[in-house]
Every structure is written in C-alpha cells, then in structure tokens.
Design goal:
4-stranded antiparallel sheet, single chain, 13% strand
C-alpha cells in the first residue's frame, strides 16, 4: 500500500475543494461545451491553466499551507487530478492549460521552447491540444501517417495529415502535433502548432462522452513549421525518436489512468448518496466496488512512482491504464443496473459518468496497445532471467 505523506495529503485536500467548486457545472458543460469559456471566472479554472508548469518557468505555483506545488512529477499530478476528475472529468479535460501537451513540451522542449509555450499559459487562460490519434491508425504512434516534410530550398518544413478526437482543438490557441519526420524508429517527432497558422483547420465532432472537451477533427494542409517549433532538435537522435517519445507517453499514462479512477470514484460516491438505506446485498456490492477502486488506485500510484524514478519503466503505467479504463466502465454500468430501469433518465449525472467512462478507453492508447507494452516488458524481463527462473 502506498500511503500519501503530509505534503501530498495537503495537495489532495486542496484538489477536493476545487472539485467541489466545479461539480455543480458538470451537466451544464456536458450540454453546451462552449459554456466552459464563461466558467473561467471561477478561480479554480483560472488556476488550473497555470499548473503543471516547471518551476523555472512558473513564478506562481500552487501554494498550500506553505508548501509549493508545480505538479510536474507524475505522483503529484495523479494525486491532484484524481480529485478534480471526481469533481468532473469533462470539465477537467475542457479546462485551459496543458495537462498533456505540457508534459511533452517539458520532456522534449528546449529552454527557449518551454519559455515560449509556458509563458503563453501564464499570460492568460489558454487552451492547448494534444494531437496524436489519427482516423486510420488510432493512437499508435509507431504508425503515424501525418508527416513533416522539408521541401527543396530554404523554406520551412510543411505539416500534412489528419488528426481525430483531439480535445479542445477547435478552441485552443496552440498545441502539440505528432508526425513522421522520417523512416524507422528515429523518424517520429512532434511540433508546436498555433491555431491561426495557415493550413490548420479544426472542426468539433459529436461525441457521447466528455463532451466538454469538444473533441475535434484536425486537417493539416501544408502548415509551415519553423525549426524553432520542432521539439527535440537539441536532443540526440535516440532521444527525439521513438525511444524518447515512449518515455514521454510513460509519464502521461498514469494521468489517464487516474482519470478513470476518478470517474469510478465519482460513481461510487453518487451511489452512496442514493443508497444510504440499502440492504445488506447492496452494501456488499458497494464494498466490492470500493475495494476494486482502491486496488486500481494503488496500481496507478505505483506506476507514477515507477515513471518518476525511471521514465523508461512504463509497463505499470500501461497496466494501470488498462485496469482503470475497465474499472470506470464496469463501475458505471453496475451503478446503472443497481438503480434499476430508467436510471439514465432519472439520474442524468450518472448517465453522464457512464458516457465519460467509455472515453477513458480511447485516451492515449487503447487497451490493446497498452497490453502490447506490458507483454513486451514481460518478454524483455524473461529474456534476461536465468534459465531456471524462466522455467519456474
């Protein structure tokens, strides 16, 4: 069991207060994603946009009881974001800031790129996007079709391709786009793109879950990308290729996993409020639900500790993401069954939680991709074991 220390408990308590502030607006943003713009008047949303920024670029960290938090470690991120996701996953994903693209910029950006990117976030509430998933290839980064090509002559490189299911892409000012820069494992890269760049077009697409995030389809038609906007140019080739991006994705997966845990917890807590006078059978089902949520939460905490210690160690993060996606869907479906026929109509918040839960499966790699990552790590470890260990 991983127990939070005093410092992390302070962060957790602060995040719970923030969750209480956004929860009343969950259904309104689900009905009208554009409502998120008017909610930036809330202190919690304006503060969210300035989190997850490295200390050297952030003069205004979150301060709780004298403790300063930058939310740049995986463990701090998931402790904080779990509670906010319990408040509402849709609003969390729809909020200004850089919950995913910021991780990429922090891991792969040069000092100049970080100063430019994070400076934009601190200037005013700014939405960003993280464009990985493609219509034909999903979120498998190794098979991207979007490409960054350098034409003959001295002109800038040009970005061509399509992205799909990109949160906030139609409202964001800037973001990160993943693309092929060449062949093989070293030919994977990412660039910084602004929404007003010629050739960039984003159009919202209808979704059932996480509607607040206003997922969009992006079309990239010869978007000019200067060298200053190509991430990782200052790094060795191995770190800006597939290996470098794998480390970055390892840092992101615990965040996605804890969002699934947050949805499951929100559902469980909703049931507790609805079933206070329930009989023993229902109490037993709730007890099992609580146990399962805590088990996945502990796995996610362990995965965060692992990637903070070694960004190459991502198999627990993949396992956590698979488990959390399955947990969120199972808990929400069971909750609907427990509340009986008509539960979706009688309990609109629970209906929303069930729709949001399904979205976790498709965020940052489906379960199939994550299982492949776990399998490869098990094979690697098995290959390095002694023959007697492998046979046992």
């Amino acid at each position: 069991m991983i127990e939070l220390d005093r410092r992390l408990r302070l962060l957790q308590a602060e995040a719970r207060d923030w969750a209480d502030e956004i929860r009343p607006y969950a259904l309104a943003v689900d009905r009208d994603p554009d409502a998120i713009s008017s909610l930036t008047r809330l202190a919690v949303l304006s503060r969210l946009g300035g989190l997850q920024i490295p200390a050297e670029y952030n003069p205004r960290p979150l301060v709780v009881s004298g403790e300063r938090f930058y939310l740049t470690s995986a463990l701090e991120r998931i402790v904080f974001l779990e509670e906010v996701a319990v408040g509402d996953l849709g609003i969390l994903l729809a909020s200004p800031g850089a919950p995913m693209s910021g991780v990429v910029v922090d891991a792969m950006g040069s000092p100049e790129q970080k100063e430019w990117f994070f400076g934009r976030l601190l200037d005013r509430p700014t939405w960003t996007f993280f464009a990985l998933t493609e219509p034909e290839r999903g979120s498998d980064a190794s098979h991207l079709q979007t490409r960054l090509e350098r034409p003959a002559g001295d002109g800038p490189a040009l970005l061509h391709g399509h992205k799909r299911y990109v949160g906030n892409a139609a409202r964001a000012d800037l973001g990160v786009v993943f693309a092929r820069t060449g062949r093989g494992p070293l030919g994977l890269g990412a660039v910084l793109v602004e929404r007003d760049a010629p050739g960039y077009a984003a159009e919202p697409i209808p979704t059932l879950g996480v509607r607040g995030a206003q997922l969009a389809a992006i079309r990239l038609t010869g978007v000019a990308v200067s060298d200053e906007r190509v991430l990782g140019r200052h790094l060795p080739a191995t770190r800006r290729g597939a290996l470098g991006w794998l480390r970055t994705f390892n840092l992101l997966r615990p965040v996605v996993a804890i969002m699934g845990v947050g949805v499951a917890r929100a559902t469980y807590e909703y049931l507790l409020r609805q079933r206070q006078a329930s009989g023993g059978a229902v109490r037993d089902r709730l007890a099992v639900m609580a146990r399962d949520i805590e088990a996945v939460r502990q796995l996610t905490l362990r995965s965060a500790v692992a990637v903070d210690h070694n960004a190459d160690d991502g198999h627990l993060a993949s396992a956590a993401k698979v488990s959390a996606a399955r947990l969120a869907e199972r808990v929400t479906v069971e909750a609907l069954e427990m509340l009986g026929p008509g539960a979706r109509l009688d309990h609109p918040l629970l209906d929303k939680l069930a729709r949001d839960a399904r979205a976790v499966e498709y965020m940052e790699g489906t379960s199939t991709i994550q299982r492949l990552g776990v399998f490869k790590e098990l094979i690697r470890r098995g290959a390095g074991a002694e023959p007697s260990q492998r046979s046992g």
